[in-house]
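Batch 3, record 17
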Amino acid sequence: MTGGGTAKGAAAKAGDTPPRFDDDFAARLEELLIWRRDVRRFRPDPLPDGVLDELLRLMTLAPSVGNSQPWRLVTVDDPERRSAIAANFERCNRDALAGYAGSRRGRYARLKLQGLKEAPVHLAVFADHATEAGHGLGRRTMPETLDYSAVLAVHTLWLAARARGIGVGWLSILDPAAVASDLAVPEGWSFIAYLCLGYPLAEDPVPALEREGWQGREGLGGKVLRR
Amino acid sequence: MTGGGTAKGAAAKAGDTPPRFDDDFAARLEELLIWRRDVRRFRPDPLPDGVLDELLRLMTLAPSVGNSQPWRLVTVDDPERRSAIAANFERCNRDALAGYAGSRRGRYARLKLQGLKEAPVHLAVFADHATEAGHGLGRRTMPETLDYSAVLAVHTLWLAARARGIGVGWLSILDPAAVASDLAVPEGWSFIAYLCLGYPLAEDPVPALEREGWQGREGLGGKVLRR
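Prediction for the assembled complex:
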């Protein structure tokens, strides 16, 4: 445990009575999954004091391969660094737009794909490929599981944030090497995600890309094989 | 929506009143994160009818790059295929053991790293690299976000399962190409995770690898940079 938690469970230790999660909690968790969104439209209001630290602490409860805990986090507040990230996005997004043709190109151009300017919190997430933690367990044949562990931490943050009414937007239209350079992170930190956090302008159970006619939900049809 | 949901939120649509998640829910969610485990010791009891289908449906609520929903799922019941997976693990684990020396080697040999034999449900997760869904949005500079999307679905399943008292164990000590071949999945499906699901023999807030002296929790120290 990292300590410092305020919630009842934070000091849980071996031998404690396991919690029982009832049907009501399962239903609320499903609502959380349904109303979590990849947010691109934020109110500029700051997060309350201490909330970001609490969210970062909760990230450390994510699963990780061999308990390697490879997530590394960078809060980005410096205006020049934020500008560098925005310029990185602009370059990559221009290239992406050039890859579309016809009506899809027009639709792409109209999408709002990031909320860098409005979001009060910018958080870059990396995976430390040089970590000794976990002693290599579980990642000999699948070294990518180190990156996956950082992704699991991102999702943990995402849900914990949404449970507090805070939206998260994941920006991947970036040159990863340039992000690492612009944020001057240590050698060996591999870029995973650039996250914007803040209160969303609106809440919706339907993904923005579905509402905007880009890509709807597919369900499970054709995605499950029995073997 | 994929339809067929029983929980209140499953039919949510644009314009619905957003749910309010209170402090009690946030505290319960934290307990869920704390008591989620990478389970390797299962009771052999089957899951109740319909629960696996419900969990798979909930996976489709995960975020994905460009709403590409690239997760592809294989339930593995055939005894010969299960044996092939177990043999794959045995080979990879023998190689992994050979990579350790001294006391760490002995400790590795004593770890129970999978519950393939006991777990009633085996679920292999892939990412479809050939999917057209999402029209490439968000993954031009970071194609690995397609794999990350499948990882987000795994974590969604993990939490939803734990909320029902069901444990999940992620096995990565496998040769990915052999898994794809043994399960005869379509071309283009890239192996992400092999999951065992079932009721855990015991529940604990402390990771097994910490209890067994392999790797303890590190907290956030040294992992957060300010830029």
